[in-house]
């Protein structure tokens, strides 16, 4: 609603709830519906009205949008269909509700489908993608429709007292606390540098930097103070000094002085996987116990194969290693005194260590 209201000043507003779900009954209804066709995730139906008036006739009467009905797909999760209601970005198993809602309201505005990938009125949207603002063409289309809908002549639809009165600029409530020009993450040695720029800021309190391993569940890892109000480009930086190994996702949460917040897009980076450290803690071994040390970024099922000086296999162990430091002890009381080699593997790392009993 706010996307279109703020782009075209279309005078739509929201009334209360209703039990009516009928299409084209004079009452505009937005609802979830589990009877939409299989490949349809949203549907808008518009009813136009127009009555010849005075010197106007049917040929000169502009048809006035009189009713909008929008239905959104409503399936239980077992069907494998999920909405992302925002403000987060949709994952690959989700469809973006805001994008589809804005698209359907584009139809309600009188815009048809286009073959325009990446634009809001493109005929389809993929799971995992979001298009939440109209393109310049689409805004122009909406404004052209507004020019019809607000003309005071030849427009007296039945039951409507006159043409639509457009909202005035400034009356739409879309919060635009900052204009975020860019947000990027770069791997820099063992650290991750996050850099973002704002073009303008209003009422901006602070940024929270959030990190995720799966792009869905984010945790805050730091804060950077905002400028409050600014009308010039500003550069911000934050360094994640202790990044996760493998893939990580980052986003910004921007919080206003009145505690409203919004999220940036999500960026993804890949760190080199940290090496696994494996060694023997004490050598020669004491008290018939082989004490190993593991430092692993990820859990592993480690194998320990022991060979005697003649190269014969003398023992075999499997160890459940968790991430971080582990100090597992292996009972080697059954081994005769002598020199041994231990071949130890954890994940993709294998080392051969010599020990004396
Ligand atoms: Zn459509």
Quick overview of this protein structure:
The protein has helices at 2-8, 97-108, 136-149, and strands at residues 29-33, 42-49, 64-73, 83-84, 95-96, 178-188, 191-212, 219-230, 234-240, 246-256, 261-263, 267-271, 277-280, 289-296, 300-308, 313-321, 324-326, 329-331, 339-346, 349-356. It is mainly β. It folds into 3 domains: 2-149, Collagenase (Catalytic Domain), CATH 3.40.390; 178-271, Immunoglobulin-like, CATH 2.60.40; 277-356, Immunoglobulin-like.
Describe this structure in words.
The chain is mainly beta and 357 residues long. It has three domains: 2-149, Collagenase (Catalytic Domain), CATH 3.40.390; 178-271, Immunoglobulins (Immunoglobulin-like), CATH 2.60.40; 277-356, Immunoglobulin-like. It is 9% helix and 42% strand. The protein contains three helices and 20 strands. The protein has helices at 2-8, 97-108, 136-149, and strands spanning 29-33, 42-49, 64-73, 83-84, 95-96, 178-188, 191-212, 219-230, 234-240, 246-256, 261-263, 267-271, 277-280, 289-296, 300-308, 313-321, 324-326, 329-331, 339-346, 349-356. The strands form five sheets. Strands 6, 7, 8, 9, 10, 11 and 12 form a seven-stranded antiparallel beta sheet that branches. Strands 13, 14, 17 and 18 form a four-stranded antiparallel beta sheet that branches. A hairpin with an 8-residue loop joins strand 13 (277-280) and strand 14. The chain is elongated and about 115 Å long. The mean pLDDT is 83. Bound molecules: zinc ion (ZN). Zinc ion (ZN) binds at residues 103, 107, 113. The site of zinc ion has 3 residues, from helix 2.
């Amino acid at each position: 609603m706010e996307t279109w209201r703020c782009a075209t000043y279309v005078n739509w507003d929201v009334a209360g709830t209703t039990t009516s779900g009928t299409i084209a009954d004079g009452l505009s209804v937005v609802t979830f519906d589990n009877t939409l066709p299989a490949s349809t995730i949203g549907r808008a139906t518009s009813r136009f009205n127009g009555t010849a008036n005075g010197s106007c006739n049917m040929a000169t009467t502009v048809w006035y949008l009189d009713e909008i009905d929008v239905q959104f797909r409503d399936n239980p999760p077992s069907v494998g269909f999920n909405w992302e209601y925002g403000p987060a970005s949709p994952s690959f198993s989700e469809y973006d509700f805001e994008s589809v809602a804005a698209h359907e309201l584009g139809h309600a505005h009188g815009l048809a489908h286009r073959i325009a990938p990446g634009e809001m009125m493109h005929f389809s949207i993929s799971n995992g993608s979001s298009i939440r603002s109209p393109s310049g063409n689409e805004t122009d289309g909406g404004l052209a429709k507004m020019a019809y809908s607000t003309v005071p002549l030849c427009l007296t639809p039945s039951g409507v007292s006159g043409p639509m009165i457009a909202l005035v600029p400034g009356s739409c409530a879309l919060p635009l606390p900052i204009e975020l020009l860019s947000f990027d993450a770069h791997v820099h040695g063992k650290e991750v540098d996050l850099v973002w720029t704002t073009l303008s800021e209003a009422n901006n309190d602070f940024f929270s930097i959030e990190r995720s391993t799966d792009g869905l569940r984010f945790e805050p890892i730091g804060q950077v103070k905002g400028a409050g109000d600014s009308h010039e480009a500003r550069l911000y930086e934050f360094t994640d000094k202790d990044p996760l190994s493998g893939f990580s996702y980052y986003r910004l949460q921007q919080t206003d002085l009145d505690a409203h917040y919004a999220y940036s897009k999500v960026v993804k980076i890949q760190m080199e996987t940290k090496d696994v450290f494996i060694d023997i803690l004490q050598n020669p071994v004491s008290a018939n116990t082989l004490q190993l040390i593991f430092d692993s970024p990820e859990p592993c099922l480690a194998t320990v194969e022991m060979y005697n000086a003649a190269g014969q296999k003398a023992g075999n162990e499997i160890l459940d290693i968790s991430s971080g430091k582990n100090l597992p002890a292996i009972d080697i009381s059954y081994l005769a005194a002598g020199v041994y080699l231990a071949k130890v593997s954890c994940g993709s790392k294998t080392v051969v260590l010599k020990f004396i009993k």
